[in-house]
Design goal:
The structure is a homodimer. The first copy, chain A, has about 200 residues and is of the alpha/beta class. The first copy, chain A, has 8 helices and 6 strands. The first copy, chain A, has a 6-stranded parallel sheet with strand order 3-2-4-5-1-6, with helices on both faces. In chain A, strand 2, helix 3 and strand 3 form a beta-alpha-beta unit.
């Protein structure tokens, strides 16, 4: 279909464009990354970043704002092999329609945010993951402006990942990277249940 | 703002809806999951699923179709702590605009697909990740129809994740789950370079 020489020429042009783009991007900084949207892959992408980070020997902190200590998911079991590097705090009370107690949800969210702030202030961490922080913002368990101010005031080389649906506009405005996971097709719609190893 | 009783009633209704949805989804099956789109988080979400899987003690296979053995990314270093469970084969030759040699790219893609098929046929694996398989389909290094037939013919309880941009329609048609990662904001656009621990 394609003759080898024209392929090589096309790819050489492609490489020149790519190299120029790479040369233009020179800044380094700690990123505020937001994984939002209704699709699967927001928390798992944060877990993948944790795996990448610990491979570089980075200490990592994670606070889970919604998940509760009940059923222990696979990723927490796996992360025990990195107990030297990863500190994961499960500080939620479960989904708010499970607790049905707003005062308790607010108090859990505040305690989790206090822990998150302490982690961000701890110089040894290179990456802090705030899992499902957007949910507690969505329900106004924490003030968005306080949280965005806290995230923005972090030290310049600290990477932070925030996950969850419905990320508020103020948070998106402060982010360096936003990925929206869109559910184009989801097995739940086809009557397939949440399966071990895939959802938890 | 919200009185506790009406909050509790609202959340009780929400829980009833949620419980009904969960009850309706009863099937279990090995999923074909596709992470596509132009945003960050496709490979990292697959890595997160690997972390979840190994936490359940599942053996996992991964074939990387584009990445080459040159620079060793953090995740591969980290996965060495799961050498008892994870078999990762880095079988690419780098981006096609780096090799500029179509025949070599095709031969690498074919070798990687042969390895992928052998992994899918290996009963001990519960999850197989085919990283950036879509790229070799995009460039027609492999025939889409052959690959989709191979994926569809896998045993019913095997989960497979395929990652990469430009997933072809035939692959999307065969998938149980499709997440499209959309880059709403990307630091590269703001002149921030690909950083260690974040991109590799």
């Amino acid at each position: 279909m394609t003759d080898p020489e024209s392929w090589a020429r096309k790819m050489a042009r492609r490489k020149a464009v790519q190299d120029a783009k790479m040369a233009a991007a020179t800044a380094e900084k700690g990123l505020l990354m937001v994984h939002t949207g209704n699709g699967k892959g927001k928390t798992t992408a944060a877990l993948g970043l944790i795996l990448r980070a610990v491979g570089h020997g980075w200490p990592v902190g994670m606070v889970q704002f919604i998940k509760s200590g009940g059923r222990r998911p696979g990723e927490l079991v796996a992360l025990e092999r990195f107990a030297d590097l990863v500190d994961c705090r499960v500080m939620g009370e479960g989904f708010t329609w499970e607790t049905q107690d707003r005062a308790r949800d607010i108090s859990a969210a505040q305690a989790a945010w206090t822990t998150a702030q302490a982690m961000m202030a701890e110089p040894r961490y290179r990456l802090v993951v705030l899992d499902e922080l957007t949910i507690v913002l969505r329900y106004r368990f924490l003030a968005v402006s306080d949280v965005v101010a806290g995230l923005t005031a972090r030290r310049p080389d600290l990477h932070v990942v925030v996950t969850g649906r419905h990320a508020p506009p103020e948070l998106l405005g402060a982010a360096d990277l936003i990925t929206e996971a869109q559910a184009v097709k989801h097995p739940f719609q086809a009557g397939i249940k949440a399966q071990v190893g895939i959802e938890f």
